[in-house]
Amino acid sequence: MCHSVGVLEAVLLVGGQGTRLRPLTVTTPKPMLPVAGVPCTEHQIARARDAGVSRVVLGTSYKPEVFLEHFGDGSRFGVELVYVTEDVPMGTGGAIRHVADHLLSGPDDPVLVFNGDILSGHDIAGQVRRWREDTADVSLYLTRVEDPRAYGLVPTDTEGRVLQFLEKPSTPEEIVTDQVNAGCYVFRRRVIDAIPTGRPVSVERETFPGLLAAGSVVTGFVDEGYWLDLGRPLDFVQGSRDLVTGRAPSSILPGPVGEAMVVPGAEVAQTAVLSGGTFVGAGATVGPDAVVEGSVLFDGAMVAAGAHVRDSAIGYGAIVGSGAFLDGVVVGDRAVVGPGNELVHGARVWPGVALSETSIRFSSDR
Ligand code: GTP
């Protein structure tokens, strides 16, 4: 039964497999990877709470227990948290429909929906306000990007009504706008109930185009504040960097830290150099004369003496041996990159793998 309860609810879609972020997501779901030491989901819950959300429904599928262990009932984070788990992943639209029975909002109430891998500074309360003013069925947060080729485009008219949903453009003529779907929606509750059940549904490919075709009011809320999709390894590392340097807003972190953020209990040698928004997690160590630039060292990771790590993610308990050079690399949990190895651009070391001394040298890009 639906009745308006006066609470603003948010649904966080956190059930994806995060295949592009493997091997980091082999052990940890993408939304739980630490971005400046704090899971993306926690950054999102804090921002939603600050915008007036008091009840959050987590739509989980992949490794749901990791969320429950960290967030519990949500009271530590100032919200009521509800977990709804799909046995089989239902896609973005299917996941939204799947949580519908757990929402308290009335048929005409707004329900916020977030993709779980978006770091943003957009005006959430402003988006809800505009949704009300426009009496929209769905409002999409849109951001502008310099190079829209990798995204679905969402052109709007002068009133903000969405005109079309366009797949990734392949020719310059197809780039009709620089506005792209930024992954946060305000749904009228009854629209969620109308999504088909029992099969996978994509909101981007099926629900939104279907609403347009049916003449529903679908609007775009363009906000040019900070936005980053953490879906790919280098973007994840950039998100962490941006939080540490203060480029990305956060109501959890103590404010811009600067060149590096070192969690108490980490050990950094006096002659090591940390720069570019590097994050060093609990129990991690950085040896003498090591250089770590714009990178993320997960808890317990180790960068040995004289190693040079740039724009990379070093997983939980992973080891980078002395004198090794890493640039744009992901090292899985507890993997070992032996001394002197050189790994660059896109190389990924799977969890637990050990590369012996100078066993690998990828240097084609340099
Ligand atoms: P890739 O495999 O690397 O594309 O990542 P992903 O699985 O997270 O997919 P994508 O980035 O397209 O997903 C966008 C958001 O929706 C993420 O926050 C996902 O966690 C979430 N998501 C995607 N598919 C599902 C699903 O089937 N169920 C649920 N509950 N969430 C999903």
Question: Please, could you describe this protein's structure?
Answer:
- With 366 residues, this protein is an alpha/beta fold.
- The chain has helices at residues 24-27, 40-50, 64-71, 91-98, 124-133, 189-193, 203-213, 233-245, and strands at 8-13, 34-35, 38-39, 53-60, 80-85, 110-115, 118-120, 138-144, 179-188, 218-222, 227-229, 260-262, 267-268, 273-275, 278-280, 285-286, 291-293, 296-297, 302-303, 308-310, 313-314, 319-320, 325-327, 330-331, 336-337, 342-344, 348-349, 354-355.
- The strands form 6 sheets. A 7-stranded mixed beta sheet has the order 5-4-1-6-9-8-10.
- The model has no long low-confidence stretch (mean pLDDT 92).
- Guanosine-5'-triphosphate is lined by residues 13-21, 30-31, 59-61, 86, 89-92, 95, 115-117, 231.
